[in-house]
Amino acid sequence: MTLGTKLVAGNWKMNGLRADGSALARELAEQMVAQGAGFGCELLVCPPATLLSDVGRILAGTGIFLGGQDCHAASKGPYTGEISAEMLVDLGCTHVILGHSERRHGYGETDQVVQDKVMGAWRAGLMSIVCVGETQQQRQAGEAVEVVSTQLVGSIPNGAIPSLLVVAYEPVWAIGTGLTATSEDITAMHTEIRARIPPGARILYGGSVNPKNAAAILGLAEVDGALVGGASLSAEDFRAIAGCVRVNAATLADES
Ligand code: PGA
Fold it and tell me: Which of 40, 112, 186, 235 is least surrounded by Cβ atoms within 10 Å, i.e. has the fewest?
């Protein structure tokens, strides 16, 4: 049984010029105000680094958290093009996504690289969202649990700080494809993950989460929230996904 507040996080990836990002952030901010008591969950948006400053300013005071999509392990130095965790904090970030499959597979990020980045994020006080997930080939070969387990062991530093750790289970084959894992597979994998991480750390599901499937996914007891890519670029879809948390909570209350 999962206790605690669910987290619905939006990963905007490399999308949006300043005008688009500001417009989306303003829509999100207005929705939060209209919602009054909030969504019954935590909301986080992770825009491209170029938009963090503008989006942060617009979301200030709304209760929506701001996060980066990556950071470097070091706090500063000769790392052209990189951004440190301290720089993210400086822009108002509280979270950072690390080890996303697009970075593991597209840029060859190893578990050790991810672990070093998690250490950097914790040094700066950022909540790390550590992404793990198997490819379709690995799942078909029956290796999904082994792959995810190896990623967890390699990517999460010893002495992990549960309050600063979120794991996102994102099957690679489900990201941006419209395919989602079955409820049974999500529950099974989250249970495996929970047995391998410190108590208190949250586990999100990610991979083609949208307003149609969110209620079923967020209703699973083992799911502590969602990491949303494509659908987070629409304020309406993001609101609809977040709204599923409250619907589920109400349903649970009715059943008890
Ligand atoms: P998606 O992306 O929702 O577009 O599948 C999820 C992610 O990459 O975090």
Answer: 112
Cα 232 to ligand 1 centroid, rounded to whole Å: 9
Residue of minimum CA distance from atom 6 in ligand 1: 229
Question: 165 pLDDT band (50/70/90 cuts)?
Answer: very high
Task: Give the C-alpha separation, 221 to 224, whole Å.
Answer: 8
CA atoms within 13 A on the CB side of 255: 6
Determine the pLDDT at residue 255: 65
User: pLDDT-based confidence at 246, cuts 50/70/90?
Assistant: confident
Burial of 19 (0-12, 13-18, 19+ CB in 10 A): exposed
Longest CA–CA span in the chain (Å) reads 57
Choose which residue among 14, 228, 238 to substitute to test ligand 1 binding: the one with the highest number of ligand atoms within 8 A of its C-beta. Answer: 228
**C-beta separation of 92 from 52 below 8 A:** yes
Strand-pairing partners, residue 130, are 98, 167
CA–centroid distance, residue 12 to ligand 1 (Å): 9
Q: Is 156 in the pocket of ligand 1 (CB under 6 A)?
A: no
Regarding the beta carbon of 44 and ligand 1, being less than 6 Å apart is answered no
- Does the pTM exceed 0.85? yes
Which amino acid is residue 131, in one-letter code? C
